[in-house]
Specification:
Blueprint lengths: L2 H23 L4 H5 L9 H19 L29 H21 L8 E5 L5 E5 H25 L20
Antiparallel strand pairs: 1-2
């Protein structure tokens, strides 16, 4: 299996898990969603916003790859977050609409990449303005790992609030190959 195939699977997993998280979160009141639960980004809503902030920041950086300018052109119209704890949306419904839009962009981006595209070294600046030069494939790994890390926090916060989101393992989306 090619590295690109793994990233395509992660993009589908990302969309699946985000749908599960938002559907579960929609069972809670606005007060419960905004309640400070002692997490890195305070609340369930704060953490969901942070995941989106991170995605936007990284998608805008990753769009500077020559092969990705057209694949990620939709991100140009999305406002650049100014803080990692920025509340882009205080309403879960509006946040979920933007989440679905980003997840679609991510799936199309992964589908459009070639294996060679993943070997490029990308130059970018972090949020403090420090320059970095890193392999594109490693940055894509980080992109998906960041989401998984914080979705794990949200699933714990939801469980503490009495909402179980069910199966969260990537294994649920890996095809069975017993006939191969």
């Amino acid at each position: 299996m090619l590295l690109k195939d793994h990233f395509e699977l992660l993009s589908i997993y990302n969309q699946w898990m985000n749908s599960k998280l938002y559907e579960a979160a929609s069972q809670l009141s606005d007060t419960e969603l905004a309640k400070d639960r002692g997490a890195f980004f305070g609340s369930i809503l704060g953490t969901l916003n942070h995941i989106m902030v991170g995605d936007i920041i990284w998608l805008k950086r990753l769009a500077n790859h020559p092969a990705c300018v057209s694949l990620l052109r939709e991100t140009a119209g999305i406002e650049q977050p100014t803080r990692l704890d920025q509340m882009l949306f205080k309403d879960l419904g509006r946040l979920f609409q933007q989440r679905k839009r980003l997840d679609s962009i991510i799936i199309n981006w992964m589908a459009g990449l070639s294996e060679d595209d993943l070997n490029v070294v990308l130059t970018y600046h972090n949020t403090q303005g420090v320059a970095a030069n890193k392999r594109y494939s490693s940055l894509v790994y980080h992109f998906f790992n960041h989401q998984t890390h914080h979705r794990g926090q949200v699933s714990t916060l939801l469980l503490q609030a009495g909402v179980d989101i069910g199966v969260t393992d990537l294994l649920a989306l890996i095809p069975d190959e017993s006939g191969v």
